[in-house]
Every structure is written in structure tokens, then in C-alpha cells.
Amino acid sequence: MHQSIYPLFRGLVVSIAIKKLAPFQLSGILFLNEPLEDTMINFFDALKTICDTSPDRFVANAYWLTFRFQTAVTTIRIIFEDEQTGADITISHMTTLPDSEKGNGHGSTALQKLISLALAHNLKRIHAVQVQDRNASFWKRNGFQKTGNSTHDYIYIPTGDTSL
């Protein structure tokens, strides 16, 4: 194990133990699973054609995706190869602004673009984590099913697939 210390916010420091897995980095993405290297790079390059992307400042392999619509912006935070969930892609945050545009389909449009692109690149394990109860119907409408764990996670199940 390798011990690292990362400053998060003013005065707050978090110590994180990291396993040495011989990770490598290409195109700004840190990979822990070498066979996915080309797939992830191709996916990330394609992702840049449908939305703006920016790396998360605090988490390796995490990115903010910004989908711009005429009257709104939907932002989704994704994590590639999430060790905690075992997912190819984990969605940890999602919002549409301004608030007056919520419920008008922008979030579903952005999410479906992300899912379609992921599936086209054979990234099938897509999770949404820590979903609030008030947002459960949104995730269900978009093809996700509750996993039943204590953190209220959802997993994407393609239409016609009954495995969970």
C-alpha cells in the first residue's frame, strides 16, 4: 500500500491509502485495467464531440460533462473504472440549471446521449450512486434499476435485459 495525502479544501487534508496496481496514464485518463485502455480512450474522444469535458480536481478518473441546450445546461459527473462499484462508468452527480428548466427533459436527453455512447463503446456497466428518493423515478424512466444496497445505488439495465 502507498499512503498519499491530498488537500481537499482550505485547511482540510485527507489521507488515502492507495494500492499499487501499476496504473498508467494516457490522454489524461488514469487506467487501472489495461484491456480497457483503447476502449476508454476512444469513448473519451467520442464524448468530447457531444459535450464539454473537464477533469475533476480531486478524483483521478472523474470528469465533469457539460451538455448545453438552448435554455439550460445539464452537468454530469462520471468516474471511469470505479473500483467501489465495479462499474465501467459511475454517475455520481447530475443537475440541470436553471432550476426552472428541470423537468423539461434536458437531463434525460444528456443521460441518454451518455448511455448510447457508452454502449456503442461496449461500456455496459453503468451505475448511478447515492440517488435521492425524490429522483428515483427519473432514473427508472431512463432504464436504471435500484440495486438494493444501503447507499441507494442504481444500475443501468438495457431494455430487454432482466439480469441484475
Description:
The chain is α+β, with helices and mostly antiparallel strands and 164 residues long. The chain has a single domain, classed as Gcn5-related N-acetyltransferase (GNAT) (Aminopeptidase, 3-Layer(aba) Sandwich). 20% of the residues lie in helices and 38% in strands. The protein has three helices and eleven strands, in the order E-E-E-E-H-E-E-E-E-H-E-H-E-E. It has helices at 37-47, 106-120, 136-141; strands spanning 2-9, 12-18, 24-26, 29-31, 52-55, 62-68, 73-82, 87-97, 126-128, 144-146, 154-156. It has a seven-stranded mixed sheet with strand order 5-6-7-8-9-11-10. Strands 1-2 form a two-stranded antiparallel ribbon. Strands 3-4 form a two-stranded antiparallel sheet. Strand 5 (52-55) and strand 6 (62-68) form a beta hairpin. The model is unreliable at 1-32 (pLDDT under 50).
CATH architecture title: 3-Layer(aba) Sandwich
The class by helix and strand makeup works out as alpha+beta
Largest sheet: spatial strand order: 5-6-7-8-9-11-10
How much of the sequence lies in strands comes to 35-45%
Q: Tell how many strands the DSSP assignment holds.
A: 11
Overall geometry: globular
Major sheet summary line: 7 strands, mixed
Question: What is the name of the CATH topology?
Answer: Aminopeptidase
Total of domains: 1
CATH class group: Alpha Beta
What is the residue-averaged pLDDT? Answer: 80
CATH superfamily: Gcn5-related N-acetyltransferase (GNAT)
Weakly predicted, low-confidence segments: 1-32
A few lines on this structure:
With 164 residues, the chain is an alpha+beta fold. It contains 3 helices and 11 strands, in the order E-E-E-E-H-E-E-E-E-H-E-H-E-E.
